[in-house]
Structures are given as structure tokens and as C-alpha cells.
Design a protein that fits this description.
Keywords: Membrane, Transmembrane, Transmembrane helix. By secondary structure, this protein is mostly helical. The longest helix is centred in the N-terminal third of the chain and has 23 residues. It is flat, with a radius of gyration of 14 Å. The chain has two helices and no strands.
Length: about 50
């Protein structure tokens, strides 16, 4: 049961912010999407 709760908590933490920001962030556009995507990719690249 704890594994199930932990897994769903991780999924919610990972996917709730893109949904909320995509719905309610008024300044978001393609340029900022590419910038944020690059930041995330660089974090994954340098972290591994």
C-alpha cells in the first residue's frame, strides 16, 4: 500500500505543475517553453 501511495504521490508531484502552469500562466509562450525545456534537459544531463 505504501508503494502505491508513494508512486501516485510522485506522479502527482511531477505532472501537476505543468498542468496548472499550462492552464493559468498567461505569459507562457513557445520561447519560454523551449527555455524551460532546455533547463530541464541540462539538469538531467548533468545530474546523470
Amino acid at each position: 500500500m505504501l508503494l502505491l501511495v508513494t508512486a501516485f504521490g510522485g506522479l502527482e508531484a511531477a505532472f501537476i505543475w505543468p498542468v496548472v502552469l499550462g492552464l493559468y500562466w498567461q505569459v507562457g509562450n513557445t520561447v519560454w517553453g523551449i527555455v524551460i525545456n532546455g533547463c530541464g534537459r541540462s539538469f538531467v544531463y548533468f545530474d546523470s
